């Protein structure tokens, strides 16, 4: 088939198809005596797989998967797919941890006066040095009294509980910082709950997209190789 025939299947330009071939997303096309590209059904399956992989894995990751697949490095392609699923699992675990922690904090909210570092560390089963390290990492922001001693207000106590839960679950400081920023943007717990529900729906949509991408990739891998 001609480049225009392949492009029209996915609403692409012929230049986009040529660019994908040059990038290795598609196998090299055969050429006519005049030098024009000729694509086969195998190329159509490769392009369909790439288009299906992008929503779940992103453009760069989908490109890497298809480059590996079209150059015969099937193990590498499948490893990249698995890494994408592993990232999705990690993202779900963060949402689960935040939801669990928010439930725990809602059951026992802190409404007392600001807490010094020693009592808060004892409450969390941590050393004061750990709280100071979290402050240096930008996770906590206690105020100071006149003597320069740290005092943790209600929102600081909440954040400390949340950080402790997420760290015990093995989450990275960078991921925790992003979540705390999101929580600090709203004082409405219901809004935080809605935001987490939205994130879970987005993860579910990405998971479905990954399934569709994997199915399309499998069809490409099952296609007979061109005769040599």
Automatic annotation (TrEMBL):
A Pfam family matched in the record: MerR_1
Matches recorded under PROSITE patterns: HTH_MERR_2 (PS50937)
Amino-acid biosynthesis is among the record's keywords: no
Domain HTH merR-type: 1-43, 117-182
Assigned keywords, A-Z: DNA-binding
InterPro entries recorded: DNA-bd_dom_put_sf (IPR009061), MerR-type_HTH_dom (IPR000551), MerR_fam (IPR047057)
Source species taxonomy: Bacteria, Bacillati, Actinomycetota, Actinomycetes, Pseudonocardiales
Gene3D superfamilies named in the record: 1.10.1660.10
SMART domains, per database record: HTH_MERR
Protein name: Transcriptional regulator, MerR family
GO MF annotation: an example: DNA binding
